[in-house]
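hey team, just a heads up i'm posting the complex here instead of the shared drive bc the drive is being weird again. everything in one block, sequence lines first with there labels, then the predicted structure for the whole assembly after. its two chains so it's a bit long, scroll down
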Amino acid sequence: DTGVSQDPRHKITKRGQNVTFRCDPISEHNRLYWYRQTLGQGPEFLTYFQNEAQLEKSRLLSDRFSAERPKGSFSTLEIQRTEQGDSAMYLCASSSGTPISTDTQYFGPGTRLTVL
Amino acid sequence: AQSVSQHNHHVILSEAASLELGCNYSYGGTVNLFWYVQYPGQHLQLLLKYFSGDPLVKGIKGFEAEFIKSKFSFNLRKPSVQWSDTAEYFCAVNSYNTDKLIFGTGTRLQVFP
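-- predicted structure starts here --
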């Protein structure tokens, strides 16, 4: 399967702990996106990268959240000092969009985070 | 700010019934429109998309959607649903000046045999 992969699929942590998620995009895709989805809601945009450059970050994203894509391939999303409100499904997507054109975003299976 | 409204939160149908799910967006500029589906236990998959051209677009599994610019709508249709169409359906939009997708809250479709 050459789709988007995410690791881990599930993460349970205690409030105040730090967590890190990984996303591996479809290999030829240069754009990578992070979304968050809570129960009964659609996915909510967090941030996205064009290669290794972070192009946009949601104003809703607190300073406890940071994302990287150091070599323009896989990406990590870190949440520091987790809170119960961070419990959600974290989705990664990738596309072959460019600065002058958009393309379909393909989603991974997500990482379900539970903060106790 | 862009937003997407899906007014049908939960739809229950019998097999062979026709389906129409509403989607309205708010944005004054040029948009790209998408319908994604999430089957139970699976990840989001693209059903169909509209970038430009013919406003009636056909997707996988017999689904189609019509973009009506004057109504800011992109409703999803299927003439005859099957039990296997049971899933959650999300409408989404982005625009040429930002690649992020704005999703609606989703519509849960249940199809009974």
